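Course exercise 7: structure representation. Students receive a sequence record and must write out the corresponding structure in token form. The form below is the worked example handed out in class, using Inositol-1-monophosphatase (267 residues). Read each field label carefully; the graders check that inputs and outputs are placed in the correct fields and that the protein name is recorded exactly as given.

STUDENT ID: A-19
EXERCISE PROTEIN: Inositol-1-monophosphatase
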Amino acid sequence: MQPLLNIAVRAARRAGEVIVRGMNRVHRLDIRQKGQNDFVSEIDTQAEMEIIETVRKSYPDHAFLAEESGSHGGSIHSEFVWIIDPLDGTTNYLHGFPQFAVSIGVQRRGRMEHAVVYDPLRQELFTASRGEGAQLDGRRIRVSQHVGLERALIGTGFPYRTNLHWIDNYMGMFKAVTQATAGIRRPGAAALDLAYVAAGRLDAFWEFGLSPWDTAAGTLLITEAGGMVSSLQGTEYKQGGNILAGTPKVHAPLVELLAPFVPPELT
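STUDENT ANSWER:
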């Protein structure tokens, strides 16, 4: 395993331990609201600190872009930037809904090089390094071989926070995808949804208004597993914003299906 990836795995597992220990006292956690339907708990903060401290022991000069503490330890233009979501799916976690994960991406000179998405409940570890493929618990994974939208299983995330003004566009997409596929799943943790696309559990995924820490690791997992990642219009995806990802022969028809509903300001 690449040294950087090895440290990322170690950091993700340590954060996972913090998360699992906290489950026994969820009802007593200090929780604050960052925005509409956007919460942060002391577990998010503790897990993030655990990741950063683990990385700094080996790479003290690296920079960080983390959901709770922001950009620090350098700048986002540093050679190495660790993009961290310590607990993707906080709302699920606070309700005892078992779908959340740790997401860590390592970027070098603006390009994602290593990725870890760790599900601490199932103890599933999704990893990838650029040019070396994607793995689940050390076994090679690939996106599904599904062709077309019929019988495809599609993941999504509902608009929230500042994205609620696009709700009508989204509902048009939701209806169209529901009518064209085998079904839609909305588990509530984008990093894990993207990992599921990489592992072939979902054939594709789309969502509005994500942040870089939501997608940094998952997008590399998908491309290393043979999938495609783009904007909603099928153009180049830049970390954060609106995303459409999937196995190639589902990705293309999904871009076409969603096109009439993409908000004009996003085209």
